[in-house]
Design brief:
The structure is a homodimer.
Chain A: H1 21-28, E1 32-36, E2 39-42, H2 44-63, E3 67-68, E4 74-76, H3 77-83, H4 85-88, E5 94-97, E6 103-106, H5 111-121, E7 130-139, E8 154-164, H6 167-187, E9 192-196, E10 206-213, E11 219-224, H7 244-251, E12 255-257, H8 263-269, E13 275-290, E14 300-302, E15 308-310, E16 312-318, H9 320-330, E17 332-333, E18 336-337, E19 348-352, H10 358-373, E20 378-381, H11 387-397, E21 401-405, H12 407-411, E22 414-419, E23 425-429, H13 433-441
Helix pairs in contact in A: 1-9, 2-6, 2-9
Chain lengths: ~450, ~450
Amino acid sequence: MRLSRYFLPVLKETPKEAEIISHQLMLRAGMVRQQAAGSYSWLPLGLKVLNKIVRIIEEEQNRSGAIQLLMPTLQSADLWRESGRYDAYGKEMLRIKDRHERDMLYGPTNEEMITDIFRGFVRSYKDLPLNLYHVQWKFRDEVRPRFGTMRSREFLMKDAYSFDLDEASAVKAYYRMFVAYLRTFHRMGLTAIPMRADTGPIGGNLSHEFIILAETGESAVFCHADLLDKPIPAIDTDFCGDLEPIFQDWTSLYAATEEMVDMPAFEADVPEHKRLSARGIEVGHIFYFGTKYSEPMKATVTGPDGKDVTVHMGSYGIGPSRLVPAVIEASHDEAGIVWPVSVAPFEAVVINLKVGDSASDSACEELYARLESEGIDVAYDDRDQGAGGKFATADLIGIPYQLIVGPRGLKEGMAEIKHRKSGERETLPIGDAVNRLKTLIIPQRRDAV
Amino acid sequence: MRLSRYFLPVLKETPKEAEIISHQLMLRAGMVRQQAAGSYSWLPLGLKVLNKIVRIIEEEQNRSGAIQLLMPTLQSADLWRESGRYDAYGKEMLRIKDRHERDMLYGPTNEEMITDIFRGFVRSYKDLPLNLYHVQWKFRDEVRPRFGTMRSREFLMKDAYSFDLDEASAVKAYYRMFVAYLRTFHRMGLTAIPMRADTGPIGGNLSHEFIILAETGESAVFCHADLLDKPIPAIDTDFCGDLEPIFQDWTSLYAATEEMVDMPAFEADVPEHKRLSARGIEVGHIFYFGTKYSEPMKATVTGPDGKDVTVHMGSYGIGPSRLVPAVIEASHDEAGIVWPVSVAPFEAVVINLKVGDSASDSACEELYARLESEGIDVAYDDRDQGAGGKFATADLIGIPYQLIVGPRGLKEGMAEIKHRKSGERETLPIGDAVNRLKTLIIPQRRDAV
């Protein structure tokens, strides 16, 4: 993408309304624009990151055996009356009347609708286990939306729903999502720790939150420091196999948010030098809730003995529109965002130090074309601007590698690569630049982990 | 994808509520499920087709120079009061009050919001031309939604918006979209004809509908038969170059829908043997409307002479959730859907005629694995069912190529490929099957056209 033809409205000033660093940086980097309270447009740079995050989530959901579909944003109130949640849900649910005065609502979650789909089609235990997920916009009418897309009213969510014949199978489904979530966050460059959680309005009796550590996190967390170094389940993990050992391994060490922490237990369980208290951001939440929805909504299958069995369910949420700021909270410096390659809007940017200089222009054009043809997601800063502004923009928007080309270096046949994260700079023959960038980038890609 | 683990709820009976063939087939093939009047869930098979259609649209939008962003589904009523459309739009607009009694609406289109984004960031004529698009769910509260996703209330739309300094540049932007649309529909296997159209509530003075021909189309169309054979602009079309000749070439021949047709003019313009009257479905609509929104909403830039100039705009819509049934209307037979490879949910299906037979199972597993590793989007029908049901399902859901493997053929080392469209069958050595499928499929892919 040539930046001269792109839509990248970076801001010089930090907007006053933004309280947290991710919100400030997303506005400054031209990633989002507020349209109403808690409602954002995703500008081109922000949308690219959001889409890369969604792709990682989808790949790991598919790998675990979940199947993607898509439910509409608006739902009929009748389904929610069946489960008893229509009146219970409170003012966060956006209630709507259509032109025929029918009660509808903008879905804040989809347990009812997916249960309705299930009971409409699935008849036999032979069709289980089944895990269906979608990635769709949802709406929760928070009294005071804040922190940009970290807590917006209209937000994107991946929500999966598992259906099993009994509790034992349902817990296996829970383990599959547990492992998929560990891999998902790891591939975005995040350190995510599963913590036993309250089930809240979703209900049920087994639940974990996935919390990523970030100095600017919203809540305090208390955990065993070894959780930071635990190996992540590998890409060839057999999701049809026994995942309980992985689950036990991860949950045997103490980890709790401030809402759930029992300080005496924390201190008893964890040796003092291993006690980690830090700040965290919730980025995922998984629930097993048995027959809470299948019972009132009569979602049953015929069991092996010919009798009807009410299915056991779980639900599993990740918020991609919240993960974008969460990654920024976990990875930034004074100059701006520091994207991991796996979710960066561009993997590299070619910076032309002197647009209009024919040697610079032709060298940059050639590098840009070669990087594109090698499949690198590359931007080309071909704007007629000073070098200082270009460096500041590249740093601010967090592109992992800057390939800097100008007349002075070109005279010697040299270019420079700046590593955004470490600040390291390397000068190298211009003919080596493409291969060098490939060597740096490809091992860090989302499909490489 | 193994069909034994997929969610593919095909129906044996044609649902009574479905009036048109595409709606019947989408329900029978397990592509969608109705959730409320005019509201559908996209089941896994349907979502795969929808996503492939969206990808083609995005690729052609990007190729033409348009830049993707994403606006929220809900909008503030205030923006629509600025343009004067809040009161004018009528009952099709779904009006909503949030918990603070603020007036909101579910966006039926986005001229106002994109104009607001534009005026918030763009200051200079140097930033033009600019074309911003998104693909987002929209809602129009039709009195009587019908025909499945062909005319649903919640529907997916790609809408692009162009901004230019003057009418001459705006018309060039219009030509770029005109050409992009010709390529877009062609890549989905559709014959789309641009027809001069009424501008309706969007307003403006230059507008074309893109109508695809289908026997079951909703409206009559009248055009010059040579439009069917016109060459489509090639993949290397220079969108920075002069596209007017292409526009003139396509619009010089008579073409009109029944609402716009002038029969005496049709008969005067078109020699009798070239007069085509057929049925058509509208799948895209483009508008140039000048300063209709930029004027009241004060979207201006500083011109070359330092004075403020009100920008000229156009908007350009395609409905992907409408295109899915439109492709089916244009391509089906008595046995079911006949997908073009470019949008087929799977490019091929391996049909195991005798699950449980060790020779069949191992041959199928190997073929399935090899096709996957060759990058073919392949399904494997490994369900423990009779051959008749498998053939019927493969035909119904319209997979372009069926690779049929069973014990009898295997004894001779042979398999069979059935071409869904022509009904042709070829028997070939099993070792040749993967290469033969690649030879058939790859040239028909969406990126090959």
